Amino acid sequence: MQKTNGSPAARPTFLEDARINSDNARSESDYDGASPGAHITVEAPPRPALSRRTTVRGESVKSISEALRLARSREEQETLLGEHELADDDGCYPPRSMDGPRAPNPHQSLPIYTTIHKIRRLIIASIDDPYSLEQLKSPRMNVAVIRPLVEHLYDPDDVSIVYCLLVNRVQFLREQSYQAHHQTVNITRANVCELIAARVLRRYDEDHEGREGLLMLANVLVAGFEPFQNAPLEVMNLNRTDIHWTIRWGLTRPEYQRMLTALEVAIVSESKNFLSTSACQKIVENVYRGRIIYTPTSFLDFLPDHYKNRGISLYDPRKAPYLNQYRLIVPRTRNILEVFQFIVLLVLYMLVMVYKAHTIGPSHLKFTIYELVFTIYAIGWVLDEIASVCEHGWTVHTENLWSFLDITFVVIFWTYFGIRVHGLATNDGSTSKLALDVLSMAAPILLPRLAFCLMSENMLFISLRAMMADFTFLTLLAVWCFGGFLIAMRRLSETQDGYIEHSVLTIAKWMLWIWFGLDGTGIQRSAEMHWLLGPTLMITFAFLGNTLFLTILVAMLSNTYTNLAQNATAEIQFRRAVLTFEGVKSDAIFAYRPPFNVLALLILLPLKWVLSPRWFHKVNITAVRVLNAPILLIVSIYERRYLWRRNRLLSPPRKHTWLTMWEHFGAHGDLQAVFETEPPQSVIDEMDDIDDVLGGEEWDQGFVNALRARRDSRATSVASGVWGRNMSRDPGIRRLNGFRRRSTREEMFTGSVAEV
């Protein structure tokens, strides 16, 4: 290595060292006659070895089938608390280490600010050319860039690495919006951050097992971190901000100021590949079911009860009280309650529409019993919706599948309510009737919203939401572009003598009919504007609008649906993560069902400024337990029996269980029934050959040797047929499944390379 000005040679960085090793491996590899550069060769990763079995006098103590069955049984119960591992009186494990109501922040010593800027410098130095996501996942990029960065950044004692990687992804995506000349490079850097975050999270999952590993993963994803945590003093002075008004007024937790979780940053940056990983979905599923509990960060609480702050812990329903008010904000429980609340709202709405007055008169100046109940209940439902927006912010809330339907209904309801109150105040029956007419516009919103709730993971509804966004954007763009045609034809109509002057609405109606191909009246009447210019403008609009723009619209919608269908699993898991994260609530207002949340806001919020935090907490939980006692009792009984119960044999969840009886009557019912029971011991004893294949000497000498030993036992005709065609000319080299392998065992372990 060269020296500069007599100084010793600089030590290569880990990225340069990785590239040098990759080049050396490439030059030393065997190309079998192919030209250099035709193949990319990497070192074959070691095959994970099966743990050796305990033997007594040369005999296996237990068969491999029994070992696998016991391993599955341990996996089913590894998250359950043993009798010697006790939770506290709230059902939290590990139990709180101090008697105070607030759990301390266990991650306050992590250098978040330094890690963020360290990762940014590494990513910028590693990626200076644009690559697609498929290229970043290729073996060459994995060996040269991704794997060295993962090895360098992974720290089993620092749970903030994933958060810092996702923060850098957000920054790179923001930079690409105003730096056009670096647009594709910044997108590549953002994708690299997401890939590394997924790899690091997988390393956490692999290196930490059992309950402690589950808690470690939960801390990585849902623990709150502040970007300027442990920054230098001069940086803190430059970025010092006043205390937020929500903290000054006691409407949010002061210890969570400017804190975000890695899960929230992943949702905001739409890191769908990261959220679809198995490790991330494991935490999302456990948080959704309420097995993992924590106090979330929030922007604004309508009814703040910040006396207790629960750390990230596992929930043991056996030790928790029966009337545990915190179970009302578990995402799964809250999702079920929201469905029932919306069904009640829909039923009340239909009753109002059926029994409303149909003639203008005194009957419109009084509330019917159905309208009065609907209005009171809808106010509580709208309050719950507004509180959800303020809990995690507008960006996270709009990622919900049916958020645009909820916001539309909120606008329609407040419009109805304002007109209705104005009609009663002015004693005007026509105004009151107008209010009910406006309320009838909510029917196209409420009925699809119920379908969105019941089938939230259906690709039709997921794609419909995205396609509606594209349709709205293109429609607004078309109105903007074709507004010039409307203005031109309106001016031509004003200057023509002897013809009736056409209004803007009339011309717009003709253009709309042409747009959808319904009627050609506009083309016939365009001569009344001008004998030449009128038909010219209208025919030109027909070509551009009905032919060009509609074709573009169909192409855009088809492309949107195709892209979503290709990534259906990632899209569904992304929506599931959004639903889970948004379902964990910090605001005490969500513990009250509509319309009791309105009473709680009117009564308890003034008490907040009178009582101490401890007494306000007592009053709040007493009111919650009294109003929700039946629900809390049902939830507690169910969770004590089924919360930690998993499907047998780790089988995938069975959906549509009401079809099970019908399936058994079908012609293929036995295909499922054969796996529903464990085989008896007599059958397991006949499986000794499994031990010979997976647990004997052949396995210890390598997976490929085991396959060869099994294949050598086949008939000679098979060996001389397909197997013989895969033999290399060199007797020392064999080809197995398209991979060139050395025949000696030493070279199998040390010098084998795979052609990719």
From TrEMBL:
Q: Report residue spans for region: Disordered.
A: 1-58
**Where's the Calcium channel YVC1-like C-terminal transmembrane domain?**
342-643
Q: Name one Pfam family in it.
A: LHD_TRPY1
Looking at the keywords, is Membrane present? yes
Residue ranges of domain YVC1 N-terminal linker helical in the record: 114-309
Q: Where is the composition biased (Basic and acidic residues)?
A: 14-29
> What residue ranges are annotated as transmembrane?
336-355, 367-383, 403-422, 464-487, 499-516, 536-557, 590-607, 619-638
- The answer, when asked if Transmembrane is one of the entry's keywords, is yes
Keywords of the record, alphabetical order, are: Membrane, Transmembrane, Transmembrane helix
PANTHER family, per the entry: NONSELECTIVE CATION CHANNEL PROTEIN
Q: What is this protein called?
A: Receptor-activated Ca2+-permeable cation channel
